[in-house]
Amino acid sequence: MGEVSAEICFRSSLPKADVFVRLCDVDEKGRSTNVCDGLIGLTGADETTCATVRLWPTAYRFKRGHRIRVQVSSGAFPRCNRNPGTGEPRATAVTLRAADQQVFRDRATDPAGLLNARR
Q1: What does pTM read for this prediction?
Q2: pLDDT digits (tens, 9 = 90+) for 2-42
Q3: ∠41-68-26 over CA atoms, to 5°?
Q4: Are the C-beta atoms of residues 24 and 68 closer than 8 Å to each other?
């Protein structure tokens, strides 16, 4: 019960990107139920960084036999506004740029070693 957050190590092909994290409960039949989620907008996302994504606070009990799923993506449209990747205001942006995103399991899995160099 309380605050939920996730530290996500991330790099994008664009300098502006979002990181969306969703915590889910998966039952014995494989049905996934959203528990809480959160989104953070990053500037300088084209450099490897670790960002703390704050999810909505929750009070939840996972039943025996259920699994915990953590989904990581770069957006959740239409739940959250799209990030155009251009720096234009989200509400009036007319150009959308596709981006390649990388999510690293931890600092040790960063192939370029950039996260460890930032410590």
Answers
A1: 0.83
A2: 999 999 999 999 999 999 999 999 999 999 999 999 999 99
A3: 110
A4: yes
